[in-house]
Recover the amino acids of this structure.
């Protein structure tokens, strides 16, 4: 399971990577916004994307839309982990095809729950 | 400054003045001088009047600029609130980390002490210095230690995870501080425009801020239609068929 973590704050990327390691996912890579993340997704065989929303350069929502628009990546499961918690934004993300949405600050349990839920749904 | 008509009228007056002076008509000459002076005075007054009107409308435009009202009434107080929240969050993170560290250190110490204790007894066993009864005691101690080691390592992992999670403040406060920095830049822009108005006259170059991202929820600040917590997010998503 190869996972890409996209967030402009390196501390948050480290937190998420450590939580993923605790959950048994050790193959993770990082990007600091959509502009660096998208080429990585396109050239590497990632199985899962965790992205922030508000980032300079390409935002997470634009990254999500770009992923869904790319035929090779369209089915990639995407979890959004963000401080953006406006109703209209959650709806926008849902409409853009997000698989899960976690608001910051979050707990390790919440992250675990959402990730396992996404995989359950994919396997079902 | 003068129109062609004014110029020719001035020329006429000037010639008239020369004639009057040459013929010694000093009374009328003085009147002509007054008329000539009136030209530049009128122009000066007109110019001052025009500048006054422009300054007036520029200042009015500045006051009517809705951004200024918004900055003064909402965003500056909001910024103070946001910065106070940054203090709260960093304090909370520091306290969480310190508490976890304070709880973890005795666990690590206990493991270390028990291990070195057992190590010296184990050396005695290897050198065949232990009686059968002493070995039984050592063996019980070993079992106890292995159990404690398992428990403590779980607890230590938990405490370290607390420290890990507490670091999320950096992302959240970072986002809030960025917003305040951009607000300060906005205020700076407005102040620069005010200075321009009082110096030269500046045209209005207002740029309306587009729909912006709100960032982390700050208690006590209205950020629009925000959801409360993760449960609300889940409810909203499940209402959308997730």
């Amino acid at each position: 399971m190869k996972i890409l973590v996209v967030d402009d704050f390196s501390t948050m990327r480290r937190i998420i990577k450590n939580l993923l390691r605790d959950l048994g996912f050790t193959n993770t890579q990082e990007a600091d916004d959509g502009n660096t993340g998208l080429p990585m997704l396109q050239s590497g065989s990632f199985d899962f994307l965790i992205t922030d929303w508000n980032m300079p350069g390409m935002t997470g929502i634009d990254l999500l839309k770009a992923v869904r628009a790319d035929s090779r990546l369209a089915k990639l499961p995407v979890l959004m982990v963000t401080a953006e918690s406006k109703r209209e934004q959650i709806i926008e993300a849902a409409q853009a095809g997000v698989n899960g949405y976690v608001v910051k600050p979050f707990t390790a349990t919440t992250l675990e729950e959402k990730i396992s839920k996404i995989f359950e749904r994919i396997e079902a | 400054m003068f129109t062609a008509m004014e110029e020719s009228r001035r020329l006429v007056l000037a010639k008239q003045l020369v004639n009057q002076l040459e013929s010694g008509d000093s009374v009328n000459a003085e009147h002509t001088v007054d008329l000539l002076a009136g030209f530049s005075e009128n122009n000066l007054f007109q110019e001052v009047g025009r500048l006054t009107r422009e300054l007036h409308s520029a200042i009015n435009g500045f006051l009517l600029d809705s951004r200024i009202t918004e900055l003064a009434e909402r965003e500056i107080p909001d910024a103070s609130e946001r910065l106070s929240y940054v203090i709260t969050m960093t304090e909370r993170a520091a306290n969480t980390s310190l508490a976890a560290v304070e709880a973890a250190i005795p666990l690590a110490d206990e493991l270390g002490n028990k291990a070195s204790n057992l190590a010296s007894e184990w050396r005695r066993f290897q050198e065949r210095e232990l009686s059968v009864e002493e070995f039984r005691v050592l063996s019980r101690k070993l079992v106890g230690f292995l159990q404690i080691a398992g428990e403590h390592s779980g607890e230590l992992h938990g405490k370290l995870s607390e420290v890990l999670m507490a670091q999320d403040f950096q992302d959240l406060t970072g986002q809030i501080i960025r917003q305040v920095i951009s607000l300060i830049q906005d205020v700076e822009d407005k102040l620069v425009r005010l200075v321009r108005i009082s110096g030269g006259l500046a045209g209005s170059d207002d740029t309306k801020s587009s729909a912006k991202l709100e960032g982390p929820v700050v208690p006590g600040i209205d950020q629009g239609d925000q959801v409360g917590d993760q449960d609300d997010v889940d409810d909203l998503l499940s209402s959308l068929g997730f």
Notes: The two ends of chain B are 74 Å apart (CA to CA).
